[in-house]
Amino acid sequence: MRPRAAPMPGRDAPVSAPAGKGRPGAGIPRGVLGSLLALGLAACAVGPEYETPALPLPGHWGAVPRTQVEPTHAEAAPNLKAWWRRMGDPVLDALMDEAVAGNLDVATAKANVRAARASYRQQVGALFPQVTGNASGTRGANGGRVGSGGDVTVDSGYGQYQAGLDASWEIDLFGANRRGVEAAVFGVDASVDDLDAALLTLVGDVASNYADARGYQAQIALARRTAASQRETEALTRRRLDAGAVSALDVANASGQVASTEANIPEIEAALAASVHRLSVLIGQPPATLARRMAVVRAVPSPRLPVPRGIPADVLASRPDVRAAERRLGQSTALIGQAEANRYPAISLTGNINATGTQLGDLGRASSISWAFGPSLTVPIFTGGQLKAAVDLAEAGRDQSFIAYKASVLTALEEVENASVSLAQQRIRTGKLSSSSASYREAARLSRSLYENGASSFLDVLTAERSLYSAETQLIQSRVATAKSYIALNKALGGGWDGMVDTSAREVVDGYTGPHFARLKLSASQ
Q: CA 439 to CA 457: how far, in whole Å?
């Protein structure tokens, strides 16, 4: 590996060749320095130049109505801004704000943005001169003499003080440092897109778990209503048993049906608690934080439909994971240039100036000044194939990034298609289940009325009530599935958080970190 130093601006005045301490060097002609400066300013950058790849994409979405073989016109652009507000639930809206402020995955993504920006500043710093200061001081004596009479004579002693500056600047002749800055810029962009992706995942998870929780509440309420109705049927059956109109078998069936319905409630309660706990953790709070707020029962969110999807090419700009994959492809391309530049010669300018005096006050007046300035050339001659292998490694990394980008695009298209089909089919299913529930509700009413009048058997009542409970349960589940398909479609289209997010605030704020005496900390066992 060749040494690398930051580039240092040149000067118009004549400069010297490297000289020994305290000895002025011979002047270098102006043309030499001018040539070095020209090389630094007109330096090229080796390696491939990045361009966003053009991927073949379909002109329209495949999930179109069956009667429409080819779409007559493109769909309207998707309206992804705060899409969850179109579900009409203010509690969900408030949870979204809390989640963005407190979610730990989002906090991690914000820290990654800060790290990427710091890395960028480090890379930019390599383009500038590196200047360091130094100072030293020495005070001593040569010893003393003892006279014949026993008198001791002590020399007055001596002192030496030195202060100076060292500077270096690499002429980025083949663009290694500039490729590093380019890669860092892509890295910053990718980290910001990763933050957007974390926010997109977060709002989707909050909305999905919220829909699940409201669905479980609706199922619990349904089970309790059904169990209460079935207890009335059980009481009716007992009265008919006392009148000798039915057998004990009917009473046993009625009791068993009530117990079976009530047995569903604990399992649904556990699922509801898990959803509420998950919501609490998503907003960055302990699991039981939202238990009281979510205890107020609300209906399953009903999304506003239909959802415009635009064209498939829109996902390239709207999906943060796709954008991040494309930025990482650019980053890996820049790293090829950086690895390639390491195979070429490197030119650096180095210099120093030092002032030396016998007294501290002499450094600014009567000191001895020495200086040196000159270029250095480093040429990789034999490295055992390491530098070429580094280029091959970077090119393989670029291929991996390109494949990852293509995969992210295909995954995005697949998710949109799947969510579109799921939403369309769930709407159909919900409509059918709504009709089914209405029919079974009427059947249950008629069978019970006939049973009370002795015109029907208890088996008819039992069958009708079971069918009604099953149909209403499926209807609730289908409404939840419709809401979650709506959520999935908006996520697949790239609908995330579009509000302001402060990435500058640190999670851990240290106290005084300036110069201070270290304190010894002992463990409790000591």
A: 19
Residue labelled with tokens 């980053």: 331
User: Which pTM was predicted?
Assistant: 0.84
The DSSP string of 235-288 is HHHHHHHHTTSS-HHHHHHHHHHHHHHHHHHHHHHHHHHHHHHHHHHHTTS-TT
Alpha-carbon distance of 300 to 44, in angstroms, equals: 62
Which residues, at least 6 apart from 417, have a Cβ–Cβ distance to it below 8 Å?
61, 62, 63
Half-sphere exposure of 48 (CA within 13 A, CB side): 14
Q: Domains (ranges, CATH) in the chain?
A: 44-63+71-129+173-344+388-493 (1.20.1600.10)
Per-residue pLDDT for the chain (526 aa), expressed as one digit of tens each?
333 333 333 323 333 333 333 333 333 344 444 444 444 445 578 999 999 999 999 999 985 544 333 445 668 888 999 999 999 999 999 999 999 999 999 999 999 999 999 999 999 999 999 999 998 888 877 665 656 666 666 566 677 888 889 999 999 889 999 999 999 999 999 999 999 999 999 999 999 999 999 999 999 999 999 999 999 999 999 998 998 888 899 999 999 999 999 999 999 999 999 999 999 999 999 999 999 999 999 999 999 889 999 999 999 999 999 999 999 999 999 999 999 999 999 999 999 988 887 777 766 666 688 889 889 999 999 999 999 999 999 999 999 999 999 999 999 999 999 999 999 999 999 999 999 999 999 999 999 999 988 888 989 999 999 999 999 999 999 999 999 999 999 999 999 998 899 999 888 888 877 887 777 666 555 5
